[in-house]
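Morning!

This is the sequence you dropped in the shared folder:
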Amino acid sequence: MESNERSSHYIANKFALIMLEALEEIMGKNGLNAILNLADVPELIDNYPPDNLSKEFDFTDVSVINQALEEMYGLRGGRGLSIRAGRAIFDDELSNFGALAGAADDEFKALPLNAKLRIGLPAIARTFSQVGDQQSTVSEYDDHYTFSIHDCPICWNRSVGETPVCFMAVGLLQEGLKWISGGLEFRVNESKCVAIGDGICEFVIQKTPLDLVQSDE
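The structure's back. Tokens below.
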């Protein structure tokens, strides 16, 4: 495992609570307890963070939990679990948080898809920034968006080979895009990752939903 040295960067307790509850739901309590022991954070066993928005859960603990998933289940298995957990985190909590709550309004639902993405992705970025000390930004290009996370908690203080590791963020974005688009699935790929030496963690989001790509094939 990487060092558990404190980062002095934090995410909201509620966000960490939902993350742990999502992992428990996916792998069972014993499975999560094994992960927490492997991550060297046994103090979290039966002692999840409180349900509040105080920023008190250290980036380091988010990172070592994600690393432990990879070590226990392998890169592919850990990736799948992290993506599932990310999707559950968004579905359980973030979909009704702050600026994203407006995506449920009839006025937003009536917008064309490109307008939903142009409004909704920055709303996701603002929500990410609100629940932790990371900052998120969005840029638009002809056929895709990039979603950038500065000071990413998921890979904090990690150094790996050539494969990006922020799969939980991929799941969060996939579910967030599904929410704002009214049920469509989008391709999300991490193109840059601090853990492999990049300056930021960056995710490429194709503008054309997978549903439409597949129907054209």
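Headline: The radius of gyration is 17 Å.

More detail when I'm at my desk.
O.
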